[in-house]
């Protein structure tokens, strides 16, 4: 068994045990070792970089939910650097999708901190990137996050426009999102500001 194989097994065990930060540190090491061993253009290296960005994003949102804002900030900054302009990722479409996810999560981070204008700026960047991609993970979620921030800024009409965009995207999507569509319709009816009726 190679050193990389052993590290991959250890990573899987750490994830299974719920030791996510330890697993992330190991993932960083294996990603570096893969780059040194196989070269940056090798498909395994490119996949490991994608997993690393998604791991940074996932753990950052878990940190936000548990109040670990400093940890969340550091993880999001790492994700942004890894998927950003000077990224080692070679596939432009993948890089853009990962960057959009990162900016969406930065928007959620700023919103949780009460920095609504910074949240809106990050979410707008995510939406801009998503509009330039042929395939994105969940653009409706970006519109909903923007709507939530706009609503907190008392910009209810603009928030409703983004909710409408999210509805249209969900209606065009597949049945995986029917639960989200139902929830969105409920929220639209239940929380529509009286002035917008």
Short description:
This protein has 197 residues and is an all-alpha fold. The protein is built from 9 helices and no strands.
What does this structure look like?
This protein has 197 residues and is mainly alpha-helical. It folds into 2 domains: 1-113; 138-197, no CATH class. It is 78% helix and 0% strand. The chain contains 9 helices and no strands. The radius of gyration is 19 Å and the shape is globular. The protein starts with a helix and ends in a 7-residue tail after the last helix. Residues 192-197 have low confidence and may be disordered.
Strand content: under 5%
Number of domains: 2
Instruction: Tally the helices.
Output: 9
- What ranges have pLDDT less than 50 throughout 5 or more consecutive residues? 192-197
Count the beta strands: 0
The geometry reads as globular
Overall mean confidence score, pLDDT: 86
Give the structural class. mainly alpha
Helix and strand element order: HHHHHHHHH
| Rg from alpha-carbon coordinates | 19 Å
Termini separation comes to: 66 Å
Highlighted features:
197 residues; mainly alpha; 2 domains; globular; disordered C terminus
List the helices and strands and how they pair.
Blueprint: H1 3-16, H2 20-38, H3 43-65, H4 69-83, H5 92-113, H6 116-132, H7 139-152, H8 156-172, H9 178-190
Helix pairs in contact: 1-2, 2-3, 3-4, 3-5, 4-5, 5-6, 5-7, 6-7, 7-8, 8-9
